Amino acid sequence: MTIIKNRFKWSAPLAMLFAAILFTGCNKDEDTTAPSVNLIQVNGEDGSEFHVDAGTTMSVLVRVSDNEDLNQLKLNIHPAGDGHDHEGEGGEEEEVFSVGIWTEDIVTNLGGESEELVYELDVPSDIAGFWHLQVMCIDKDGNEAEPRVVTLHVENDEFPAINVESTNPEENAEGEIEIAPGGTISFTGEITDNSGLEEVHVELENEETQTVVFEEEIAAAGATTWDLNQLSVVIPQSVESGTHLHLHIHAHDTDGNEMSAEFEVHVE
Amino acid sequence: MKYFTALLLCLLAFDQSILAQPEVHSLRGKVVDKSTGEPLPGASLKLHETMAVSSTDGQGDFSFPKVRSGVYHLHVTYVGYKAFTAEVDVTSDVDSLRVELSPTSVELQQAIVESDILRTDYAKQSQDVEVAGDEFLRQESGNTLMNSLSAIPGVQAMNVGVGIAKPMIRGMSANRVQVNDQGVTQQGQQWGMDHGLEIDQFSVQRIEVVKGASSLLYGSDGIGGVINLLPAPIPETNTFSGQLTMMGKTNNDFAGGSLSLQGNREGAYFNVRASFSEFGDYKVPAEQFTYLSRVLEIDGEALKNTAGKEKNLSAAVGLLKSWGNIQLTMSRFDQQMGLFPGIIGIPTNFELRDDDDSRDIDLPYQTIVHDKALLNANVALASGWLDVDLGYQRNTRQERTRPHRVGNEPLPENSQALSLELTTFSGSVRWNRRWTKQVKTVVGLSGEHQQNRAEGWEFLIPDFQSVSTGGFAFAEWSHWPAVTLSGGARYDVSNVATENYLKPIYNDNQQQVGLDERAPQLDRYFSNASGAMGMAYHPSDQFNLKVNLGKSFRWPVAAELASNGVHHGTFRHEKGDPNLTAEQGYQADVTLLWIRNHLQFKVTPYFGYFQDFIYLRPAAVFSDLPEGGQLYQYNQADAVNTGFETYFDWHVIDPLHLQFSSEYVFQANLETGLPIPFTPPLTLRANAVYEQKSDKDWLTKWSGGGSVQYSAAQNRVDRNEDPTEGYALLVAFVSAKFKIRSLPLEALFRVDNLLDTKYTNHLSRYKLINLPEQGRNFTVTINIPFNFSIAKNQEHDDH
Questions:
Q1: pTM of the predicted protein model
Q2: How far is B414 from chain A, CA to nearest CA, in Å?
Q3: Across the beta sheet with B129-133, what order do the strands follow?
Q4: Is the ipTM of this complex over 0.85?
Q5: CB proximity A71 to B under 8 Å
Q6: What would the pLDDT profile of B612-633 be if each residue is shown by its tens digit?
């Protein structure tokens, strides 16, 4: 138990008052200039989105600078999305998903006005999808650089690859498939896997009510290529107009790897 | 609770005359115009000690039938006349008290401006008090109560979007501004920058703002200032009335309303109110915003997921008798507010996409339920009175976000990121006594007990319990006719005990490998002395000088001692310091007021020196938590807070009023010379209101006006804080009081940000991600008061 008592001394506040008046406005030469993260290169390339292969070593080059004295750099890798998002970088509209676990948090001590660091990071062999690589930097006074974020698209041959060329009906400008109750959605494209697919599972879910309105499981019997025209998704007549549904296509291979593709469906 | 009853009995025992049988008399009189002698019908009268109200009839006569022997402040107000307070000594029936009112066109003089605790005339108080009445609040009709109050110079609103706002006085907020609702301090985790004030804006009819050192009367947290939300006036005896208010706003499709009913039968009265409001995403005049060097879209120029809804219910019952007044009020505040996706991490373009439903509140969102039970009593004693305010509050805050995996932790099972339940019992007793014509004292005792329970998969603050108690004595001495001296001393003690918090640590295989003590167990005791002394020089109605010197304090709260977690949107890891000591403030407030015929000019400079001022500062090292950015540590340093407000009011010609005001705050950390973060910029306001009475059958009066607000650029920023650009905002409004078949109806049309200016508010939390504030917004408010009273049927002008 600590008892903290504050003694009331009049001399203290009066002296401080004069000091305050004298020192007010003086910035005392505090450094408030932030450092900057000038460059992030992955595997020797520039850009904001990079393709890397699972199970390989990725080389990340980071260049930072400050007007006075750098203190620390933090490199962080975390999943980019939670399965339902669309990222629109480089003109490509790709679904943002992250399968598997990969996190990195590396803090490096720095000094001086500029530094260039190279990190050799192992990309896990059991992940696929989109991750964010974020670089943050602070100087000796605590000034923070504007963090720099790049996207890593991890490609993994071990995972099934769902390649949807088109849907019928096609997605509209907002990325939704508009369809009336009773209608059927069909797909062109294929699912490929290097070890062989076990099954393809499709479900249509109403996220608001947490109910699945359509579900189908099709055994794939170890096929390494599976034609998507085998899938047809029927919107039940009972679904009300205006409902928003999520369509998931899950592909499981014989090694236990799973990949998903998601679509937004708007019932007219 | 036992302590308070015991204390109450002790205090009552001091006033021996309470044991004797009280005598009851009648108080009757007439209110007239001083110069013409004409009676004034419909004047409002109030006996401040017992809260009894009355009004004059067609002949200007009034009566208070049952008044106990004693000395009372009788307040008389009437629009267009100077408010008048008479000290009436009632020892036998008073049959013909003549109250003479003088006309004035200076608004300040028309209202009773009296500190609710001290009940001293404004002129004699040593600190400036601003009073906002219901007409002011309706005219300003901001998105939240605090936005309406920000029109008062020196008062600012710190907001998160449009539905959440907290008060700031002279650059100080959170636990440095105490908000009291009916005498009970509002406790709602106000340390949080994204925690707004849980009060139904429709229910507040009168607010008192005290800027500057206020610890003497209010304790810790009165270091920056106090906002007193005063209760609705007690309905007049044998009346039954109500009010319906409806409000709509275009910018965020706001629709809301409030219905209240009140009645009084022979002194037993009640008051009930229900308010509902719902609004959609708010629109900004921008198509994109930049965050972390990425340009992100603002689809449809509306900030997605900034919708919200709120419902409020309150009921009060009370007794108004000759001995005083006792009232029990119960209320519930229930709000759900969407949070812009970017505020909890890097938003993706999908999250920002218009989902065709602007009213939809999706994750992430915040819910707050604040339940209150208040007991207020006002007991008249032979030469003074007793004020008792007891309260029970339960504040439940939840933050719900899409479950996301942090580091090696397993994916959370639900969306309840954070849940905080704070239960507070508080009470205060004050004995107010006038000893002689020149000397008056107030002695008070207060206490508070708090308990916090935290849940959720994110950790921010631990479970804690705190107990505090304090006592003060204050005296006022008017020895000379033009000078009033006042002063007092106070002593407070408190104990804060926080529980330790252990978070599991996981390895790469999601196996738990240990526990991390995020918050230690703490048991801290604090004790503080505070006080104030002041002087008011009031040689005439036309000049008033006030000087107040105060010593205040503020205890560090549990969040400042023991928080330890990554706070949303800023990537900052905020960490408390268990060894913090209380802040000590040495403050001087000066008020200069000149009143001439049609002019009023007020200047209020202030200076405060703070020892051990607590705030978050960068630690220059990274957090060891996954995704955590820089570690921000609660630190203490000496600081200065100074500035001024000016207010100029000119009643140019009878219907036209012009007002100019300015406010400026300068804050700096004295050790580094750097500014304190979130310092409000220099703000200038110009207001013009044209009001015209009408003798048409269907129209009582109408008014129109506008204002310009200019906020300068704020370049005085702390490390890692972004400066904001200056901007000007235009407001215009038209209002009218109609009379449709003798039913009064008030309508107000108002447009905020008339020019659809794109601007960032330096005090907004959304400035951290460069989000602009609301664009042009049209508001329509309809207010219908109705009366079922059988008694007099006169027009009452509200103040």
A1: 0.84
A2: 14
A3: B129-133, B206-211, B225-230, B177-181, B184-185
A4: no
A5: yes
A6: 999 999 999 998 877 678 899 9
